[in-house]
Amino acid sequence: MRTTAKALAAADAAHPYTIVDFVPPATPDANRQLGSGTVVKKNTSGANVLKVENKQSTDVVVSLAPANSTAAVLMMYVRAGQTGTAKGIHDGSYNVFVTSGSDWDTGARSFTRDCEYRRFTDTIDLTSTSRQYTVETLTLGAGSDGNAFVTPSDSGSFPT
Fold first, then answer.
1. How far apart are CA 150 and CA 106, in angstroms?
2. Are 121 and 155 in contact (CB under 8 A)?
3. What angle do CA 147, 149, 153 make, to 5 degrees?
């Protein structure tokens, strides 16, 4: 509207239009963030650990859902260029989903801008005994060195 009002005011130099400033000034985009490793949701208990190294230029939320389930048992926020760790994950086979973007809306459990959704093509398996447990490390945005493949996904299939 600001651009249109300026163009209209300058359209006829002999008869300039007076445009009333009824549109409030622009405000900068919000950029709400959580701390790296902040657990957004956790509905699991166990001995296993998930470590996420985010080498991307945007923040991410990693979501774990048991195989054949659409409900997340863990959601963890990791800022761009940082690492987050979640402890206490139950044994099982999990699908891994990743969303990235800007401005995290905690109530909606989603980014409000520049959102992308991806899913790992393979599951991760976490197992523990009374003496050992799994520490699964996911490195996001590392280039072609990794051995995990991701496919694009949509917001409706992202488990929350």
1. 25
2. no
3. 160
What the chain holds in terms of domains, given with CATH numbers, is 38-154 (2.60.40)
pLDDT value, residue 154: 87
* H or E stretch at 9: helix 2-9
- Residue segments in the chain with a per-residue pLDDT below the cut of 50: none
pTM of the model: 0.81
CA distances from 37 to 3, 27, 113, 145, 157 (A): 42, 30, 21, 24, 23
| 82 C-beta neighbours (distance < 10 Å), count | 16
Q: Nearest-CA neighbor of 75 among 115, 114, 104? A: 104
- Give the pLDDT of residue 118: 95
Give just the sign of the alpha carbon dihedral 53, 37, 30, 28.
negative
